[in-house]
Amino acid sequence: MPTRDTRAVGKLQALVRIPTVSRRDPDLIDTATFDDFLVELALQFPLLHQRLELTRIHTHGLLFHWRGRSDRRPVVLMAHLDVVPVDEDAPWQHPPFAADLVDDHVWGRGTLDDKGSLVAICEAVETLLERDVTPAQDVWLSFGCDEEVMGRAAPQAVAELVRRGVRPWFVLDEGGAIAHEAFPGIAAPIGVIGVAEKGVASLELRVDGRGGHASTPARMGPTARLARAIVRLDRSPMATSTPEALLELFRRIAPRAPLALRPLMANAARIRPVLTRALVAAGPETAALTRTTIAVTTLSGSPALNVIASTARAGVNIRVMVGDTVAGVVDHVRRAIDDDRVQISVVEQIEPSPVSPRDEAFALLERTIGEVFVHAVPAPYVMMAATDSRFFTEICERVYRFAPFRMTKAQRESIHSYDEHLGVDDLLDGVRWYRALLEGLPR
Length: 443
Ligand SMILES: [Zn+2]
Hints:
By secondary structure, this protein is an alpha+beta fold. It has helices at residues 7-16, 31-44, 46-51, 115-130, 153-163, 222-234, 244-253, 262-266, 272-281, 284-287, 326-337, 360-372, 409-414, 424-439; strands at 53-57, 61-66, 70-80, 101-102, 105-107, 137-144, 170-179, 190-197, 199-208, 212-213, 293-300, 307-308, 311-320, 343-350, 377-383, 399-407, 421-423. Strands 1, 2, 3, 6, 7, 8, 15 and 16 form an 8-stranded mixed beta sheet that branches. It has a 4-stranded antiparallel beta sheet with strand order 11-13-9-14, with helices on one face.
């Protein structure tokens, strides 16, 4: 057997060892670390840095332009350089910034989210440059530096493309994966490609009233009123429906499903209401696929045990389903609480993304998945989390979210958590996948 070129592994290790941790407060960001990271990236991918035109974006964001034979259908490949902080108490099996190579996996923060993609994209480009390949279409690489804190780099990269008159044919960012153990009873991995993402809204519920001494309480004070509002909200989930992308996913995996389930899955569209009820019944994860979710997260009241709160507050985090709007959800919350003395304010809001079409560009992604991951079933889905790619929907109707890495359930759960790790073979197949994608761009 020919030995595989494994140099991408060392590159990933070098970059994981530089802890580019994002912070919401700009004063807390270690900018020297980000500087070091960009120096290391240039060392690891010398040809890419020599031959592609680079525009610095915001503080440490990068936008590379690789001129193709045509600029008619430019594509944008995205990844981000920053990572979320590490919880010091989390039981990592291997130190989060050591990038240890153990059991044929690289362990560390950012291996999956999102330095693996960064390295795979850059290594694919580097190896094509070594062979003097010119892509059929213009290729832009957009690497954000503050994705994890919803920062400014991605919108500024979009502004730069607008300034240059670039209308991408498609944009590809993190999100989906070659997901193993995605559905019980389905052995085949599913190559899930995000065609849309849920929106996000945060609300504050606030009740003001007379505080005072705990020895002389009145009925329905701020805390009791807030508690009633929370219970009412908990009893009023939003309406459910199975999104079209999920129906398509079921249709595609039907042939691989257990025999008893096949007819149901193949006819998912016709039994949509039954299917939706089944997804809701199967647990919170699958229920979240079918509706806007509302979660009460933070709570505050009196600072002292013997003082009645004059103000009680609750934070509410909402993930807005494609098809709903933030304003519509706020209306729902107001009606559910049904109490004018509970003030509702919107702290942040991002509408759900448009749904990208499944046309020629989507087919190219599917075909490329088929070439590298022969057993995987490519399928569309709606992402639950927000990515930088949402800003690109302003300039491009085909925005897809997919990382070409096999991921187990445990690996998916390690993202933003602990024990994040990426298999060596999975990284190398990821490099192959991006290379195949770049070589497969249509003329
Ligand atoms: Zn990410």
